[in-house]
């Protein structure tokens, strides 16, 4: 059984081996979370090349060489050559580096989940490598259920939390306010574009403290 974790990759050195469409998607996901990305591949897609030219990542236009994984926090092997993927995985296992070999669960010590992001909300879906296609379908369902309004909702909740932490010293009272803010239907107001209703419900929660 796997224990679910979320890694903070901002500023961390990450290596992607491969330059095709799959590697492109993995690189894009790493760039989104602020990772420092290096790609090694004899050829890369136009999108990857554009990111290189924009200074968003480093690239080495050559094949993987033994030891290239050293010094990286996370490595993703995304080539279509099994011998190369195995070499990358072996390097990482020997150095205790996190490695995901795309579509080959035995050559992974972590799996990359399908992700839904709505501002500060992150929903990760994983099938432990059993079926990425199923994870993709669940992600699409979650995207419909959790719309863009959740990003705004969490921004409001974050601001209110900071305000309560500044202004209310009693821990139990804080907890009570947080619970009431979560239950009072602020999300419904945001969905409906009801700014006045949002303000009134917030004021009700804060004043009752």
TrEMBL record:
<dbReference type="GO" id="GO:0019354">
    <property type="term" value="P:siroheme biosynthetic process"/>
</dbReference>
<dbReference type="InterPro" id="IPR028281">
    <property type="entry name" value="Sirohaem_synthase_central"/>
</dbReference>
<dbReference type="GO" id="GO:0004325">
    <property type="term" value="F:ferrochelatase activity"/>
</dbReference>
<dbReference type="InterPro" id="IPR042518">
    <property type="entry name" value="SirC_C"/>
</dbReference>
<dbReference type="Pfam" id="PF14824">
    <property type="entry name" value="Sirohm_synth_M"/>
</dbReference>
<dbReference type="InterPro" id="IPR028161">
    <property type="entry name" value="Met8-like"/>
</dbReference>
<protein>
    <recommendedName>
        <fullName>precorrin-2 dehydrogenase</fullName>
        <ecNumber>1.3.1.76</ecNumber>
    </recommendedName>
</protein>
<keyword id="KW-0560">Oxidoreductase</keyword>
<keyword id="KW-0627">Porphyrin biosynthesis</keyword>
<keyword id="KW-0520">NAD</keyword>
<dbReference type="InterPro" id="IPR006367">
    <property type="entry name" value="Sirohaem_synthase_N"/>
</dbReference>
<dbReference type="InterPro" id="IPR036291">
    <property type="entry name" value="NAD(P)-bd_dom_sf"/>
</dbReference>
<comment type="pathway">
    <text>Porphyrin-containing compound metabolism; siroheme biosynthesis; sirohydrochlorin from precorrin-2: step 1/1.</text>
</comment>
<dbReference type="Pfam" id="PF13241">
    <property type="entry name" value="NAD_binding_7"/>
</dbReference>
<feature type="domain" description="Siroheme synthase central">
    <location>
        <begin position="118"/>
        <end position="144"/>
    </location>
</feature>
<dbReference type="GO" id="GO:0043115">
    <property type="term" value="F:precorrin-2 dehydrogenase activity"/>
</dbReference>
